[in-house]
Write the structure tokens for this entry.
Amino acid sequence: MKKILISLLLILLVGTAFAYVDDALSFAYEAASPYVKKGFSVREDAWGGDLGVKDQQAVQAQLFKGNEYWFCLGTDVKGAIISVNIYDAKGNLVNVESSRAGRLSSVRVEPQRTGTYYAIVTVHKSSQERTGWALVYAYK
Amino acid sequence: MLNILNAVVAMGFFSFAANPLHAQKPPETVDLSSFPGQSIDDVLVPVPSEVFIVLDKLGNPNWRSELRGSLGHQTGNRAQVALLLGTVIAEGFVAVEAEDSEQVKDIGRRVLTLSKAINVEKAVLERSKSITEKADVKDWIAVRKEFDGALQDVKGAMQELGDDDLAQLVSVGGWIRGTEVLTSIIRKNYTTDSAELLHQPALVHFFSKKLDTLSNKRLADDDLVERIRKLLSAIAPLIGDGEGAVIPQENVTRIHKMTRDTVAAITSKGA
């Protein structure tokens, strides 16, 4: 009985985690939609997770010189303030343009070199202890 | 979906205090070493189109000449089928660049057949239909998106079946075929700018790590998998030491030969 209860609890926790990451993903795609009209292709793959207030997470991306990218971040938490910034392999900021609207945050990058870049996601403010986030990118 | 899963699983373990000033203006520099390795180790694998469109900007590649005459033969070996599926999806991106509707439709059907062989057919059934419909009306941006979606759906379905290892092989197969095409085009009209597109150390490291930690012993011991481990080890020193390092033509040719031979091994094994 104890094993069953633990299993049910785990299923519930994992299910809940996916639910808010999926919601955040919908917002990330919403953040990316204006760029589709400008000829950008939005990737189907995505990063996601959750963070506490004032926490950060870095994820890696392979970017190609000659392309233009928009990184679009969304959260499921209403009123939360989140941001994404892009750094090169030496830790230098490479944002060209950024925008923030409600629970969406986007940043444009034009890599000067082909290689590894780091997207750093930050939760600045949130009413929740953990804030779900999802990050997608578009390229052209 | 794997990246989402990893990030969810990692929640709470890899969190760091942020500077409150980030809300106003991000810092010009950050110390990347202050982030734990595992939180930044996962990387989204770019689809071949991301690099192919740069080649389009640099010149006018003859994409049709890059298309393979045969999409390869499948065996009963699951590792081979997964790798082959990756190469076939990558071929879809080449066919999109070549704007070859018939080839795109053939590839869409082949993706379905291969997916059936490893029990993930349902995941790509709609994608396959959509590829055909969109190729018929030559909506290339939409076809490209469907191939990207097919790749993610296949990998997602494999992960749901507990076949994470197999999902990685699909990604690796696609990357190898993409790199074969990339190097084929670069070597025909070499410039340092085009060769720089091969500077992908994080991806090579990521794939090496994944293949070194396959949990399925049968897959881990597979001859093709072992061959690809050696391929990645051989490629790593050829793609530039640091950002902006010049990748000489000789390296491009060597990478092309290695990836071409590996694709041939994947597509012809047991045939």
Observations:
- The first helix of chain A runs from residue 2 to 36.
- Chain A has one domain: 2-139.
